[in-house]
UniProtKB/TrEMBL annotation:
GO terms for cellular component: cytoplasmic vesicle. GO terms for molecular function: guanyl-nucleotide exchange factor activity. Coiled coil: none annotated. Residues 1-76 form the UDENN domain. This is MTMRD protein. SMART domains: dDENN (SM00801). GO terms for biological process: regulation of Rab protein signal transduction. The gene is Sbf2_1.
C-alpha cells in the first residue's frame, strides 16, 4: 500500500515540479487569493498541447491543491520536499530502475513512519469468543434517560467550551520551499 502511494507521490511531484513559481498572490480582497498561472506553467514546460495535463490543471482537484498548498507559510510535508529538493534525484533515476525502486521504498518507509510515529505501541488483539458464547446472549434493558440531567450536562459543556481557549493544531508552520523554477525541467 505504501509503495503504491509512494509511486503516485513521485508521479505528482514530477508532474507539478515548479508549480510554486507559477503561483500568484492577489491581494484585492480582505483575504488574499492564490491564483495559478496555467499558461505560464504549460508554456515553460513546453506542454501547451498536452491535453491530459491541461485537463488536470483545469480540474476541481487541482484547484483544491492550489488553495491548500499555495500559501507561502504553512506546514510542509514529504510532497513539498520532493518538489523542492529531489528534482535532480528523480531526473537521474529515470533511466535507472533499481535506483527508482530504492527511492520508492524509501518514500514508502517515510510514509509509514509519518502515519505510525510510535512503532513500539503494540496493537492489542481481540480475543476469540469462547465456544457457545452466542448461546449466552444477555440483553439488558436500555436505561431510562433523565432529561433534566441531560440538559444540565449540555449546559455545563457549553459553559466550559465558551471559557476555553480556541483549539490549535500542532502542525509546525514554516516557509514552503519554492524549489527550482519551471524552466529547468525541459
Amino acid at each position: 500500500d505504501k509503495e503504491v502511494r509512494a509511486i503516485f507521490l513521485r508521479l505528482f511531484a514530477q508532474l507539478f515540479q515548479g508549480y510554486r513559481s507559477c503561483l500568484q498572490l492577489i491581494r484585492i480582497h480582505a483575504e488574499p487569493v492564490i491564483h495559478f498561472h496555467k499558461a505560464a506553467f504549460l508554456g515553460q514546460r513546453g506542454l501547451i498541447e498536452n491535453d491530459f495535463l491541461t485537463k488536470v490543471l483545469n480540474g476541481m482537484a487541482f484547484a483544491g491543491f492550489v488553495s491548500e498548498r499555495g500559501p507561502p507559510f504553512r506546514a510542509c510535508d514529504l510532497f513539498d520536499e520532493l518538489v523542492a529538493f529531489e528534482v535532480e534525484r528523480i531526473k537521474a533515476e529515470e533511466g535507472n530502475p533499481p535506483k527508482m525502486i530504492k527511492h520508492v521504498r524509501e518514500l514508502a518507509e517515510q510514509l509509514f513512519k509519518n502515519e505510525n510515529p510510535n512503532p513500539h505501541i503494540a496493537f492489542q488483539k481481540v480475543p476469540r469468543p469462547t465456544e457457545g458464547s452466542h448461546l449466552r446472549v444477555h440483553i439488558l434493558p436500555f436505561p431510562r434517560i433523565n432529561e433534566g440531567r441531560v440538559q444540565e450536562l449540555l449546559q455545563e459543556g457549553l459553559a466550559r467550551s465558551q471559557g476555553a481557549p480556541p483549539a490549535t493544531r500542532g502542525d509546525k508552520k514554516c516557509v514552503v520551499p519554492a524549489g527550482p523554477p519551471v524552466g529547468t525541467f525541459i
